[in-house]
Amino acid sequence: MTGPSVTNPSETNPAGVNPAGANPSSTPPSVADTVDRSCARTRSWICDAVRVIEADANRSADTHLLRYPLPPEWGIDLYLKDESTHPTGSLKHRLARSLFLHAICNGWVVEDTPVIEASSGSTAVSEAYFAKLLGLPFIAVMPRSTSEEKIALIEWHGGTCHFVDEPSAIYDESRRLAASMDGHFMDQFTHAEGATDWRGNNNIAESIFEQMALERYPEPAWIVAGAGTGGTSATLGRYIRYRRYGTRLAVVDPQHSVFFEAWRDGAPHRTSDRGSLIEGIGRPRVEPSFVGQAIDRMIKVDDAASIATIRSAEQVLGRRVGGSTGTNLWGVFGLVAQMRQRGEHGSIVTLLCDGGERYAPTYYNDEWVAAQGLCLEEPLRVLERFHRTGEWA
């Protein structure tokens, strides 16, 4: 006896879709299937987010390595790595890109994740840029005393500013906000040294050595940088050792920052009750990303010296630079004088961290400088003598 014929559903409905009004399968999708589909959507967003960030980098040429004119008879060549040419105008653009890639690839940031950062400066500007690029909400937690110019710049890049009355509260408030919004606290001060691939991948160290390859002294005697998070100095110091270069790393530290004293005294828990006047570098505590063992020398620089140096550099370079560049150059000039005294020839590379336009109301404003109790006359005399004779006080 022949039984009833059985139709293979795939023959009449190849796509496997239930016809309208048909009963669904008696076997519901498993929990594992549901989770897997959710993960697939997340993975798709992550892949596209990484592509967007990498495409942004691919659209940008590498930053320039500029010559700072010193008398040729000194036998010392000085270069500035001009980080002001990044889309957001500062060295922090590199950090923000690395932090976003780090957070995305770790699964901490996915589609629609609010991103929170404790910053009122260039890092917040750069992170706001990348958040906007990815369609993510970005909130910068900052002291209520933050200048209107900085607030406007962060907001122009799509960020929102969240204010606290006590500057030291920015970290706890960032964590609270992230928890309450199911967001991610980027925490630049903790993750800066780990987010950057210090072995290469076109980091700032690899870029410097590649650009120096055809110069008179291709392997610098010194690279000089400041420390804010500590991430840049950690990348430079590690890369130098990894590539077995003889280059030494000097880190400059501004007045009221504790990095220098903590490094000198071996006191990693050193703190201060006030922050640095020089934006982007210096901290009232030793941040987790600061790797002192990768540093060969540290140099303390007064605020008046940093500001006097950017005033002097404007005359030499024909452009304004930020305060941290002044701190870098003050440290460089002392090393140049020392090399000359020893009869050494070679090259030194430092960082032009950002342009000076955003500091017109502060470092380039005589009234503001006087209100900080700073006098620039003595450091300007030191700088004039150095450029004339190569001697350093």
Describe this structure in words.
The chain contains 14 helices and ten strands. With 393 residues, it is an alpha/beta fold. It has two domains: 63-86 and 202-389, Rossmann fold, CATH 3.40.50.1100; 93-192, Rossmann fold (3-Layer(aba) Sandwich), CATH 3.40.50. The strands form two sheets. The chain has a six-stranded mixed sheet with strand order 1-2-10-7-8-9, sandwiched between helices. The chain has a four-stranded parallel sheet with strand order 5-4-3-6, with helices on both faces. It is globular, with a radius of gyration of 26 Å. The termini are far apart. Residues 63-354 form the Tryptophan synthase beta chain-like PALP domain. It is an enzyme of class 4 (lyase).
CATH class categorisation of the largest domain: Alpha Beta
The largest pleated sheet is described as: 6 strands, mixed
Q: Any idea what the radius of gyration is? A: 26 Å
Count of spatially separate domains: 2
- Rounded mean pLDDT is 91
Envelope shape: globular
Per DSSP E runs of 2 or more residues, the count of β-strands stands at: 10
Order of helices and strands: HHEEHEHEHEHEHHEHEHEHHEHH
Distance, first to last CA: 112 Å
Percent of residues in beta strands: 5-15%
Which structural class matches the secondary elements? alpha/beta
CATH topology of the largest domain, by name, is: Rossmann fold
